[in-house]
Amino acid sequence: MNRVNKLLAGLTTVGSLVFGAASMAEPFKIGVCYDLSKAYTFATPQVAQAAQDLAKLVNMRGGIGGEPVEVIVRDHGNEPQRGIECYSKLSREGVFVFDTLSTPVSLAVLPRAMEDQRILMQSLVGRGDAVDGTVFDWVYPVGPTYWGQAANNIAYIKQVHGGDLSGVKVGFMYFDYPFGQEPIEILKTLSEKEGFELLLYPVPLPGSDQAGVWSKVRRDNPDHVIVWMLGGAHTVASKEMARNRIPMDKYISVNWLNEVDIANIGTETAKGIKRGTNVVGGQDVALYQEIMAELYDKGEGTGPIEKTQDVFYNTGLAMYSIMFEAARIAAEREGLPITAESYKAGLESLEGYDANGLMAPITVTAEDHGGGGKTRIEMWDGKAWVPQTDWISEYTDVVWDVVKDSSSKYQQ
Amino acid sequence: MFYRLSGVHHANYVSDSRIFKVPADRNLAAFMFLIGIAAPFIIPSLYLNSYMLPWLIWTSAALGLNLVTGWAGQLHLGYAAVMAVGAYSSIHAARFGVPWEFALLVGGLTSSVIGSLFAFAALRVKGLYLALTTLAMQFAMDWVLTHSPAISGGSHASLQSPTLALLGQEITTDTGFYYVAFGWCVLVTIFMLNLKRTGLGRALVAVREKDFAAAILGVNSFYYKILAFATSSFIAGVSGALLVATFFFLAAPEQFSVAVSIQVLAMVIVGGLGSIIGSYLGVALILLVPGIVNGFVVSLSDWLGMQINVETLAHIPNAVYGALIVIILLIEPLGLGKLYGNIRDYLMVWPFDQFKK
Lengths: 412, 357
Description:
The complex is a heterodimer of chains A (about 400) and B (about 350).
Chain A: H1 2-22, E1 28-34, H2 44-60, E2 69-75, H3 80-92, E3 97-99, H4 103-116, E4 119-121, E5 139-140, H5 146-160, E6 169-175, H6 178-181, H7 184-194, E7 197-203, H8 211-220, E8 224-228, H9 232-243, E9 251-253, H10 259-265, E10 274-277, H11 286-294, H12 311-334, H13 340-347, E11 376-380, E12 385-387, H14 396-407
Parallel strand pairs in A: 1-2, 1-3, 3-4, 4-5, 6-7, 6-8, 8-9, 9-10
Antiparallel strand pairs in A: 10-11, 11-12
Chain B: H1 13-16, H2 23-42, H3 45-71, H4 79-96, H5 100-122, H6 127-147, H7 149-152, E1 159-160, E2 165-166, E3 169-170, H8 174-195, H9 199-209, H10 211-216, H11 221-248, E4 250-251, H12 258-271, H13 276-303, H14 310-331, H15 336-348
Antiparallel strand pairs in B: 1-4, 2-3
């Protein structure tokens, strides 16, 4: 009997420890279900580090409305099934804002988030038509869609050619699967509209063999090559370009080109390479400087400082600045605790928000969950990224036609 | 003591051809069945929805692959592609207005036709050549899915599944989805249990052991191989359709990629070729253990208050999981099913056989 009593006493102690911890001030949580071990590792560590650093900074400054914030980072290995598991687990723990940074997982979680009325952030991944807020009420792909990004690239090329694209040859080189194929439709439409010649160069995954396709580029001799590839494929492309004597400044990459790629290509060789981006690259950014001063200089950074010197770290800062800013608006307007509804309203009240010069200003509305889709073209000058345009968002009517056409199919 | 037997001795053909030759096995199966029925009431919805449901559907799929790989001995590296055929054709049928019962059937039959059409070409070669041919089927299917918007739907080639409805009943709850998956898994399991004691099952085993020896015995090995491919493709098709209808709610090519094909094959091999309980265990290991180990490592590091980098934290479970597979296959190369069989055999007449040793 005595032993049973002891056991019971022990159990109650453990129980009170466990539940006692849970009853402390409930922080505002973001479920960060990322692929930290498989296909997306070229970007996820930097983005996750940015999220954690930013959360630390917000907490050091008193949190949001006096409450701390927490980012819960979990690995899903890019498997839809584990992404759903992560989502289900965290949403039962009361998390209502999620980010997956993986297209397959985002696609798999989306129907559940819509059903459960949880916020699914999916900047730069997932289905592009989710910017249509009238269909996808709970999904926020804040940032440019690939459609918008491609259209902005064409706008830049038009600017380079003095406003007339007739007779200009534009190549489009892409990974031959949905990520790379997405911009094709919009490029075709624009080619008809603006009169430039569009040349398509599909590259089979994983992009390690590009010998044939670049000799084709040499024969066709396009004026620009828009490139929808990522990771090591950029390095392979640069080697093939050198072999075929194609100047680097013809290369306009999708936003997935970072300092690691530049280092692999060679900082000198990469001179003239361009990328579309929605965030400011480099370390000359106010928010970045604040994080350095308040965290890394005091040895409290989340990870190695090298990882912060990467445009994907800035991308992460941008994504999470948006999420925290929306929470701040929600807390200000409707008070604590923040709910999914008040958070949604907070997101939709973001107007011209640029996180103190970190990114393209975004304005999210109930109709446009993408925030306007502004990007700019930056060029690598051997040391730093030099902006070539302002933040632009062109051909929005064409982009929205594609968006509407695609999103209308979701409900059928 | 555990099985209350002095050994398995058959006095007549009827007892020899029973599904469960040991009463305790039958009781265990019945007990598991009852637990399966009661699961929604005893298992928290998180585990029901994120572990049990995918586990059961993947087990049905793995059993189908086990039919062709474990029973008929044909290595199949394009199984996920066959599942994709079933999933996409069912969803298209359902979107077209076909009732789900028939849509699932359509999915199964389409997979069956395409799976065996491929087998026709593939079965002219054997062994590793066959494996490579089925792999080609996987890549052909991947290509078709990513290049034909008419099949794969709109943005990012994702196709929304209409609400599942069976017997005039719309199914929208976790419990409902679970019972659908459970029902299908039970059906497939019963089929596979019976396969062992039919002429078809014996013919498949004969083909597996030596196809030309089987031919000498009058077993048309080509016919039975095609039959095995067709049957397993049917199971794959319906499983794929149910996977989308009850779990993903949306079909995307990544859900049926080559990595998934290899995963299913790993489930069957780790579980044990030709073992039914092995398929259950193998799926649990390959599908669920990464998530479980991940959760365990995360809570362990939280509990110990360790500040581990999220990246390291993500890789530890992978290492543990990999080591687990290697250790299991080192201990018992015939897989988890055999491991279970060893324990069962050891306990069969325990403690009396201990005197012998």
